[in-house]
Design goal:
CATH superfamily: Aldolase class I
Shape: globular
Radius of gyration: 20 Å
Number of domains: 1
CATH class: Alpha Beta
Structural class: alpha/beta
CATH topology: TIM Barrel
Bound molecules: iron/sulfur cluster
Strand order of the largest sheet: 1-2-5-6-7-8-9-10
């Protein structure tokens, strides 16, 4: 299956996924990977599929979606591996552009130091980089990169790409308890992201059974702290903590709206007060959502925040599925 979806994505609206890498060829073997273990660690680009075949497959999926009156906002390269390992990526983007949709690529950025990879990604309208740590040891423990990769070269390549890129650049930072979630580590990531000036910096947590069983998401307090640290920089920050779909929807339904807003960012107590007042509601509704384990309180620098409880489902007996849509 090369093309799948379209699936709802908070970042990209309705996204038709393109799986341009066979399972599971990757430059990394992240401890939290949700599409299974890396079976082929690779840093050399290769031709995996004929670009015309990808074009035909995606074109067919687009037609099927249109027949069912399903809209498509983005064609997204989100393989079960690393998208830029595909030596045909640039050609595929060029071909797919003729279908008239915006093109997105979700990449770990491990090959961004290569000029040809930067040139290929420059053709896309939207690019997401993975930046989990700027500390070499943590990067190695967390992303388990192929042994010849050098983090400094990758980070430099990211900055070089960001300086020239005219599309929308976003970043994604996965937070894992005890690995990259200390205040010091988060501050260092935020300093680096400042060099990239992303359109948005997303904070994610593992929400499905990861490749390594000991992997756990950070506590809500730490998630809140991460948000506050990133927010001190001049770029937008949002959570990706397992609530896609209608996270942006303002329904006029107080409960739904509170859940939608807090799925994206924590709300200070005074902001909640104001919101409830405008909606003609009171704290009873918040207390009810807390009792249902949907909202939690988290303190940061003496201020209380209300935030969505992260949507974690790490039970070990849940089968590991190669559900590519969870990346988007
Ligand atoms: S999370 Fe992404 S980059 Fe990391 S191993 Fe899985 S597919 Fe590769």
């Amino acid at each position: 299956m090369i093309a799948f979806g379209p699936v709802p994505s908070r970042r990209l609206g309705r996204s038709l996924g393109i799986n341009n890498i066979p399972p599971k060829v990757c430059t990394y073997a992240c401890v939290y990977c949700q599409v299974g273990k890396t079976t082929r660690m690779e840093v050399h680009r290769a031709r995996f599929y004929d670009p015309e075949e990808i074009y035909r497959d995606v074109g067919q999926k687009v037609q099927e979606a249109q027949k069912k009156s399903e809209s498509v906002d983005y064609l997204t390269f989100v393989p079960d591996g690393e998208a830029t390992l595909d030596a045909n990526l640039g050609r595929e983007i060029e071909l797919l552009k003729s279908l008239g949709f915006k093109i997105a690529v979700i990449t770990n950025g491990a090959l961004i130091w290569r000029k040809d990879v930067r040139a290929d990604l420059a053709k896309a309208d939207w690019v997401s980089f993975k930046i989990d740590s700027t500390h070499g040891n943590t990067w190695r423990r967390m992303n388990c990169p192929q042994r010849t990769l050098k983090q400094k070269t990758i980070l430099r390549g990211m900055v070089e790409f960001a300086n020239d890129y005219s599309g929308t650049l976003v970043t994604e930072t996965m937070l894992v308890r005890g690995l990259n979630d200390s205040a010091k580590s988060l501050r260092k990531i935020a300093v680096f992201l400042n060099h990239l000036q992303p359109h948005k910096a997303y904070l994610a947590v593992p929400t499905r059974p990861p490749a390594t069983k000991w992997v756990r998401p950070p506590s809500e307090n730490v998630l809140n702290e991460a948000f506050q640290i990133f927010s001190q920089r001049p770029f937008q920050v949002e959570y990706l903590i397992g609530y896609e779909g209608n996270a942006f929807a303002f329904t006029g339904d107080v409960e739904q709206d509170l859940l939608s807003i807090t799925a994206v960012h924590p709300m200070r107590q005074d902001a909640v007060n104001e919101f409830l007042m405008r909606a003609g509601a009171d704290w009873q509704i918040v207390r009810k959502l807390m009792a249902q384990d949907l909202l939690v309180e988290a303190k940061y620098r003496g201020k209380m925040f209300i935030m969505r409880k992260s949507n974690v489902n790490l039970s070990e007996d849940q089968p590991m599925e190669a559900d590519l849509s969870i990346h988007i």
